[in-house]
Amino acid sequence: MSQLQNHNSNLFTIECEDIILREYRFEDLDDLFHLTWQPHFYEFLLDWNVSREQREEWILDYEIPDNKRFLDAVAKDGNIGELRLRLGIISKDSGEFIGVCGTGILDKVSPPSREIYYGISNEHRNKGYTTQAAKGLIKYLFENTNVQELIAIAQTRNQPSNKVLQKCGFESQDDIEIENREYHVYKLRKSVKI
User: Fold this and answer.
1) Which of 37, 48, 68, 168 is most buried, most CB within 10 Å of its CB?
2) What is the pLDDT of residues 156-180, one digit of tens each?
3) For residue 160, cis peptide bond before it (omega within 30 degrees of 0)
């Protein structure tokens, strides 16, 4: 664990206007844990509000190692397959961990497809940060990986998230139900200018 705690140099980042996307580090554990227990966060993102012990296990055993595998694949040939990338949204002004943005394979749609997702702390909503984060990640994926198409889902009643996806150029496809919740499904092809 101490090796991970001290390995903060050379972290992968994506620079945006007001925020920085940064790969997770162990020191993010408490901020991430508290973020995922904010009511609006777990209302709209499934399976994120877990115990601190579970969150610690995930960050150490899955999220940080998965990020390394993802970034190694990008460096090798850009073929990311089904690998995941999980990034923190960091405020440029305060250096505070204020949200999450990432990509992985969404198996709740048919066929499974590469998705992007995001979530922001209550105190930083409606400031354009999630749009910046989503656009930054989309640009990175389309320019550095073999990804040709992305999907995203947003609960039909989550207007802010639907607006973010529309601002990023995603087009609505259809609606699906997951765990008794209605979602809009969006797609974005690499040829679209963001």
Assistant:
1) 168
2) 999 999 999 999 999 999 999 988 9
3) no
